[in-house]
Design brief:
Shape: globular
Distance between the termini: 59 Å
Structural class: alpha/beta
Order of helices and strands: HHHHEEEEHEHEHHEHHEHEHEHHEHEEH
Number of strands: 13
Helix content: 40-55%
Length: about 400
C-alpha cells in the first residue's frame, strides 16, 4: 500500500537544498526555526517555496478565514518632537503651522459621527506633541467611553506613551494603569520600526529604543491589555536585522502571550529624508510576509495593512501567510498616504472588503479588536451588504 504525500510535503521533499529541506520539514512538524534558519530563508529560499510553507501554516492555524474589523482612525496631531528619517507625516514643533492639532471637541465630533454605525474600534495614534499631555488623553478617553462605552479604544504607540510617561514623571506601569482605567483597551504596534541599534540610530535615533518599546508592551500585557507589533521593512536594513527584530518579539510573546498580531509595514520613500532609498519590490514584499509567518510561530495572526500596500497587493498577501487585512479605516488616516502609499484616500466599505477577500478564495470574517468573531460573510451576498450599509 502506498501513501500519498500532501502537496506541501512534495514541495519540501523536492527541494534540492538540504538545509532548506530540513527547515521545511521542521515547519511541517510544527517545530520552531532558529535565527540562522530565518536568515537562510531570506537569502536562499525561492518565493514559491516560502510561499507554499507560509500558506500551509496559515491554513493550519486559520483555514481560509480572513479577518477584518469595522474601525476608524483619529490622528490627534502630526506635530512631533521627533524627526524620523523615514517619516513624511510629522511636522516638527518648530514648524507646527504646517501641521494640525485636533481639540478634544473636534475628536469627539469624529466619534459622534459614527453614532448608529456598527464600528467596533477607534484607533488613536499621531505625532508626539509636547503640549498634549497624558491628562489630555485621559480626559479624551473618559469622554469617549461616557459617550460610547462599547467602543474599543486602541491607542498610542509606545513612542507616544514613552514621551507621555517621561513628561508626567510616572513609570510605564503607573502610566498604563491610569490610561487603562480611563478607557484604553489595547495598544497598537507602531513605533517598533527596526529594533537593532545599528539601524535605529540611523532612522529614528531620538525616540524610544527597543528595550523601552518592549518594556511598555510587556507592562501592558501584564496589566491585561493586548497589543500588536510592527516592523518597518524594505529600507536600509539587512535580512539579519529583520530576524533579530522578529526574535525579540517572539521572545516577549513566549513570556507574556499578549500580542494579537504581527504587522510588517512597507517603507515608502515619498517626501522624507530617505527618498533616495529604493522601495522593495512586490516579490520582496511577499517573501517578507511569508518568512514572517514562518518565523513568528507564537503570533496567532499576521496582518497586511492594506492602505499601505494597496488593495490588490494586500489581496495577494493572502497567499503568503496573511490572515488579516485590518479594517474599513474610513478615510481617516494620513500616515501612509503622505508617504506615497498606493491608497491616497484609504477607505473600504464592508462590502468592498468582503468582495476583496472572496476574490482571493478566502472566507471573510468580521472580528473585534481581540479577534472574537462577529460574523462570517461567506454566505452573504455583496448586494445584501450594500443594502445594509445604505
Amino acid at each position: 500500500m502506498t501513501t500519498t504525500k500532501n502537496p506541501i510535503e512534495e514541495i519540501v521533499s523536492e527541494e534540492k537544498n538540504k538545509s532548506l529541506r530540513n527547515i521545511g520539514e521542521k515547519i511541517i512538524n510544527s517545530e520552531r526555526i532558529n535565527e540562522a534558519e530565518g536568515v537562510l530563508l531570506f537569502e536562499q529560499a525561492s518565493l514559491p517555496f516560502v510561499g507554499a510553507l507560509a500558506n500551509f501554516v496559515r491554513e493550519r492555524l486559520h483555514g481560509d478565514k480572513t479577518y477584518f474589523n469595522r474601525n476608524f482612525h483619529i490622528e490627534p496631531t502630526n506635530v512631533c518632537v521627533f524627526s524620523c528619517a523615514f517619516c513624511a507625516y510629522s511636522r516638527l514643533y518648530a514648524h507646527r503651522e504646517e501641521g494640525w492639532e485636533l481639540s478634544t471637541e473636534q475628536m469627539m465630533h469624529i466619534i459622534k459621527s459614527y453614532d448608529g454605525k456598527p464600528v467596533t474600534e477607534v484607533h488613536i495614534v499621531g505625532g508626539v506633541h509636547p503640549k498634549l499631555t497624558m491628562q489630555f488623553f485621559i480626559d479624551l478617553m473618559k469622554q469617549i467611553k461616557a459617550h460610547r462605552p462599547d467602543l474599543h479604544i486602541k491607542g498610542y504607540t509606545a513612542v507616544e506613551l514613552d514621551y507621555m510617561f517621561r513628561k508626567a514623571k510616572v513609570t510605564p506601569e503607573e502610566g498604563l494603569k491610569l490610561l487603562h482605567e480611563a478607557g484604553l483597551d489595547s495598544l497598537p504596534g507602531g513605533g517598533a520600526e527596526i529594533f537593532h541599534p545599528e539601524i535605529r540610530e540611523q532612522i529614528c535615533a531620538d525616540k524610544v529604543d527597543a528595550d523601552g518599546w518592549l518594556k511598555i508592551h510587556e507592562t501592558a500585557h501584564q496589566l491585561g491589555m493586548h497589543s500588536n507589533a510592527t516592523m518597518l521593512f524594505g529600507h536600509i536594513e539587512k535580512y539579519w536585522h529583520r530576524i533579530d527584530h522578529m526574535e525579540r518579539l517572539r521572545k516577549l510573546q513566549d513570556k507574556t502571550h499578549g500580542f494579537n498580531t504581527f504587522i510588517p509595514l512597507k517603507f515608502r520613500n515619498k517626501d522624507n529624508d530617505m527618498s533616495h532609498v529604493r522601495e522593495s519590490t512586490i516579490t520582496e514584499d511577499m517573501k517578507l510576509y511569508a518568512v514572517a509567518r514562518l518565523y513568528m510561530d507564537n503570533f496567532p495572526h499576521l496582518k497586511a495593512y492594506w492602505p499601505m500596500l494597496g488593495r490588490q497587493n494586500a489581496q495577494l498577501t493572502l497567499s503568503f501567510g496573511v490572515n488579516d487585512l485590518d479594517g474599513t479605516i474610513d478615510d481617516s488616516t494620513k500616515i501612509y498616504s503622505m508617504a506615497g502609499s498606493e491608497e491616497q484616500h484609504p477607505s473600504l466599505s464592508t462590502a468592498q472588503l468582503v468582495t476583496l477577500i472572496k476574490q482571493a478564495k478566502r472566507e471573510p470574517v468580521e472580528r473585534d479588536t481581540l479577534y472574537h468573531e462577529i460574523k462570517n460573510y461567506s454566505n452573504t451576498s455583496v448586494a445584501e451588504l450594500e443594502t445594509s450599509e445604505k
